[in-house]
Design a protein that fits this description.
Chain lengths: 273, 262
């Protein structure tokens, strides 16, 4: 929106200086990121930090260049385990969410169970997964799945369980069965909740896969960082962190975009969550 | 002549044996084609009455008969509209209005093949309530009054024999409300539909109804039944006649004393 006003303003007054024509709002994230790196660099210089404790960003970028190939390979591995785990979480979370939200009784019965399951730190499950499946990609995928599916279930179930009673009355008075109400109201209604939960879920999926890779794998960014750490290669650890941040932001942005595309009506109508 | 709606000595209690007794000994009859209004103190069981007639609740004792058969499950010859328009925000206004046709047994199998005919009907209804050309808008692009008009269209699309209105105009400003009174009045006159209107607005009840039921405080029952004498078609000017004000005054007194008794 601001871009449009900027453009019309600048065509009306073509002589305006360059600085006034820049769209600062869309530039801001980049500038702030840059600012963070500059601050970081200055801090390292000012405190004279050794690179084994806190490497400067320039040093980290050097490491990225130097270890480009393993970083790239392990990033793809982590992206792969995360995405697979997340995809399973989406399918299972949607299905379980619809099931739980279907009736008040199921909701009441399963909710405490799910809370109990969710308070278990998922990292505690990794050893069990290793016993069952050995080390490698499978525990990483499963940890990503286990940690990310809960918010999807809760959101979908909440969307179903909060149908306005009046809407339900209007439809039931017309002879609607439970199935009709779910298809016509419940499921469309829970979609904004579902797509909203994807952003949280993808972030958690990264946590799960990286934790599992750190303790029980020979691939992935988690493994790469933990082995770099054991060799005191701290710049490479930070390079791994940066790679994770980039992947995380990219996936988050993708989920936010999907949410916008699929349920734009929920942002413009009064129904918000 | 048999009544379209007949409620006979009905008790309805919410939440088990020791729950709230909402209505008790409720008896009322509404004839086919009649416009009935129900007034009474807040919480006296008016909305409960609506749900009993539509079959959303089944009474613990007493009998509710609609169109000749006892109500034991939701009856699909009714249309309902509440104070809250409850339009679905992901559907256009037109698709919202067509929603009942996707549900009601008689229409749902015909809808796909006869879509055009139904859309025409919906558009005709939109025109009747003064919303011509708004079918493609989403509900959140309409004002509260416009949403309420669309809500009326949705209640009428499947040509119900009985229209149940629960404070449909409660949230609207005085001018919009009067305009919608006229819309409802004309719909009633044109379609011969039977209407039961729950309202807190005594002028609304007196202007629209043929018969007004005054309910007691909870547990609700019918205290008094008034036949509204003004000839139809009624003009908004009828509200400035002395007889009209006397009637409103009398209703007001009855409800005030019903509240005191409670
Ligand atoms: N689902 C419910 N569960 C338990 N009690 C209920 C329920 N619905 C209504 N009641 C109780 O039944 C009584 C009658 O409620 P009802 O909604 O029929 O009143 P009303 O006349 O429509 O009130 P108002 O004029 O405020 O809309 C109230 O005392 C209310 O507390
Ligand atoms: Mg009510």
């Amino acid at each position: 929106m601001s871009a449009v006003t900027e453009n019309t303003a600048s065509s009306a007054a073509p002589a305006r200086p360059l600085l006034a024509r820049v769209n600062w709002t869309s530039l801001a994230p980049w500038l702030y990121t840059l600012g963070l790196f500059v601050l970081w660099e200055l801090l390292v210089m000012a405190l004279d930090m050794p690179p084994t404790i806190l490497p400067a960003p320039t040093r980290v970028f050097e490491a990225i260049m130097q270890y480009w190939s393993p970083i790239w390979k392990n990033s793809l591995q982590t992206l792969y385990t995360t995405t697979v785990g997340f995809a399973i979480a989406v399918a299972a979370g949607l299905a379980l969410g619809l099931f739980v939200g279907w009736s008040k009784t199921i909701y009441a019965g399963l909710y405490p169970l799910m809370i109990g399951f969710n308070v278990i730190p998922k990292v505690a499950l990794v050893p069990i997964l290793v016993i069952w499946f050995g080390i490698g990609a499978v525990p990483a995928v499963l940890t990503a799945f286990l940690i990310s599916f809960f918010p999807i279930v809760v959101n979908v179930a909440t969307g179903l369980a909060t149908i306005e009673p009046e809407t339900e009355d209007v439809l039931r008075a017309l002879g609607a069965k439970k199935m009709d109400i779910m298809l016509k109201v419940g499921i469309p209604r829970s979609m904004p909740y579902f797509f909203g939960s994807l952003k949280i879920a993808i972030t958690l999926a990264f946590v799960g896969s990286v934790v599992s890779e750190t303790v029980a794998s020979n691939y992935g960014l988690g493994y790469m960082m933990s082995s770099a750490q054991s060799q005191f290669n701290v710049p490479l650890v930070f390079a791994g962190l940066l790679a994770l941040a980039v992947e995380g932001i990219a996936m988050y942005a993708l989920m936010a975009w999907i949410e916008m595309r699929m349920t734009g009506w929920a942002h413009r109508s009064s129904m918000s969550h | 002549m048999p009544h379209l709606v007949s409620i006979d000595n009905v008790d309805m209690r919410y939440g088990g044996v020791n729950g709230t007794l909402a209505v008790s000994g409720l008896t009322m009859k509404v004839d086919k084609g009649e416009f009935a209004a129900v007034v009474g103190p807040s919480g006296c069981g008016k909305s409960t009455l609506m749900k009993l007639v539509t079959g959303l609740h089944i009474p613990q004792s007493g009998v509710v008969i609609v169109a000749g058969s006892q109500v034991t499950e939701p009856v699909s010859i009714v249309g309902m509209a509440f104070q809250n328009p409850t339009m679905l925000p992901w559907r256009t206004t037109l698709d919202n209005i067509l929603l009942p046709l996707e549900i009601v047994e008689k229409h749902r199998h015909r809808l796909r093949a006869h879509k055009k005919e139904y859309v025409e009907k919906a558009e005709h209804l939109l025109e009747t309530v003064g919303l011509k050309g708004f079918g493609s808008k989403f509900p959140w692009q309409l004002s509260g009054g416009m949403q309420q008009r669309a809500n009326l269209c949705r209640a009428l699309i499947h040509e119900p024999e009985l229209l149940m209105l629960d404070e449909p105009f409660g949230a609207l400003d005085a001018f919009t409300r009067e305009e919608l009174w006229c819309v409802i009045r004309d719909l009633h006159a044109a379609q011969g539909v039977t209407i039961i209107l729950v309202t807190h607005d005594l002028r609304e009840a007196t202007f629209l109804a043929d018969r007004i039921f005054v309910m007691s405080a909870r547990p609700g029952r019918v205290l008094k039944e008034h036949v509204v004498p003004f000839a139809r078609p009624r003009d908004l000017d009828v509200m400035y006649e002395k007889g009209f004000n006397d009637m409103v005054h009398e209703l007001h007194g009855e409800i005030a004393s019903a509240r005191v008794v409670a």
